[in-house]
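ugh ok so i messed up the first submission bc i forgot one of the chains. this is the corrected input, ALL of the components this time, i swear. 600 residues overall. if the numbers dont match what u have on ur side tell me asap before i send this to the collaborators (the ones from the other lab, u know who)
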Amino acid sequence: MQLAIAEIRRRRGRWASIIGAVAFIVFLVLILAALADGLFIGSTGAFRNSDADAYVYSADGRRSLVRSALPVEDLESVTSVEGVADAGALGILLATAATDGDLFDIAVIGHLPGRVGEPTALTAGRRPATGEQFVGLADMSLRDKGIELGSLVLLTGSAQPVEVVGFVSDARYLLADTLWVTLETWESLRFEIRPETVGGGSVAQAFPIAVSGGAGVEAVTAAIDAALGTTETVTIDEAILSLPGVEQQASTFTAIIVVSFVVVGIVIALFFALITLEKRGQLAILKAIGSSNYLLLRGVLIQALIATVAGYVLGFALSRLLALVLPPAVPVEFLAGTARTLFLATIVMGALGAVLSFRRIIRIDPASALGGEA
Amino acid sequence: MTALTVNDVTKVYGSGHTAVRALCHADLELSDNEFLALLGPSGSGKTTLLSVIGGLLSPTEGSVTIGDTALTELSKKEQTRFRANRVGFVFQGFNLVPFLTARENLTVMASISDAPRSEIEDRTDQLLEELGLADRHDNLPEELSGGERQRVAIGRALVSDPDLILVDEPTASLDTELGTQVVQLLASEIKSRGKAGIMVTHDLRMVEYTDRTVRILDGELLDGPG
Ligand SMILES: Nc1ncnc2c1ncn2[C@@H]1O[C@H](COP(=O)(O)OP(=O)(O)OP(=O)(O)O)[C@@H](O)[C@H]1O
Ligand SMILES: [Mg+2]
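and heres the new structure output, hopefully the right one now
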């Protein structure tokens, strides 16, 4: 302990460089992870922030809200399937809106108020009443666009504005801000903006469902598809991963992060291999005067711990500094859980890197200390 | 009492054609409070004998007993622990931990030996005083002269209060005057503590500070100053 810490204190230069290297990688990883989390949160809020256990799509919709189409009258059949506690309906319309002359993308989501599938966290105002026309819930992110309670949102191509009567948080869809209206309002806006969709009766694009207490989600989804014959029902987790780009983004970021941690391990391993080589004579003397392998190996682990913890703290601080100057459009989210996982991963990789020098240390012969060559 | 018994020790390095017999049926006894000089030319087996006695090398044949412990019967791990507590080493050349101060080079024995830290700290202060290093205790080895470094090494060998001190050519890197000083100090530290000690040397002039001299030639021990 005394030895391990004294070495770091008296060889500050080299230890600063290894701590700097770890800090730099940790910084990159934390920024990447924050981007990954930000993209995930911004892409999936509309699904995650609901009480639904599963989503029913049309079989030809390939698990896509945009491609799927379901006759609204099928909702009856879904609700009557054994194990379904509640079912709602969703429709989506990707549009543009303007406030003060600034155009921005907005996803208008039709839903059934009070039924499963609506965003759970109401942060201000009220929800639309069932069948209430041209009022909506706005995602909190629309506040940045100047929208408040009572604001009127006019979609490009529509003559009828929607009044914002409430706010929900974390309810975005594929990084677009969302406006949640009744299914009826959604249908009329859609007919107005996308005239090609008119005709063929009322449609929704997905039925979110909640499963009753004892029923297994997998069994219920299978039962729904069997009963309707024309649907593909997936669990909420599958629905989230099927959102365009979400799974690909997650796996790409995970791969980069994993590789970065391997690099942390390699950097630490090389560093300890190098200083072990340099300290051979000194380690032989320590062994000759009675140091056990245990004592020396423990010292190396303590040093790896100090280097990785210090590197992490520094990298963490740097990432937060960068976050302060990032434009708000960059979707970064710093989550405590992610920070904790990455902290543990950093320490584990550091320890693994240090362990690689163990054999070299154990093999040093204390007899080589005598004779003056050491 | 007998501090050390070396009984019929033979050490052969390597095997077959390349085998080197570095020690040949060596016998040696050392009593408490005895300081012995081991004198011999280069390659005669002095370091090998010291290594075997200190448990750093296993003899090919024979046994080493220190106090009442048969060192050659112990496992590697037990030998390491034995060295930490019962044997003090002074090596030739640079043998201090370079990033520890003079004082820390002694107190580091608190983590290595089983002696309580407070005991080690007390003995450290006393030894630094006696070795004339009281005002150098905060200096790193690179800031010390060769003689000062060798005195720190002597302090480290004594600080865990071992029964046997083994010293390999302590004056090799010092000039005669400094070498004599260091050996005088070493002898007085060993004698005042009633320890047993062996000092390897080339230098006949150092012999006068020891109680007895044993010569070694081609791995064989010959008693007397001859
Ligand atoms: N690891 C080894 N492998 C093979 N032979 C060795 C080894 N160590 C020492 N020897 C040989 O054993 C003999 C005795 O060596 P030792 O180091 O004990 O001599 P020494 O008396 O200490 O010499 P010096 O005064 O030069 O230090 C020498 O012939 C040496 O070449
Ligand atoms: Mg030698």
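quick check: The mean pLDDT of chain A is 93. that seems consistent at least. DSSP finds eleven helices and 13 strands in chain A.
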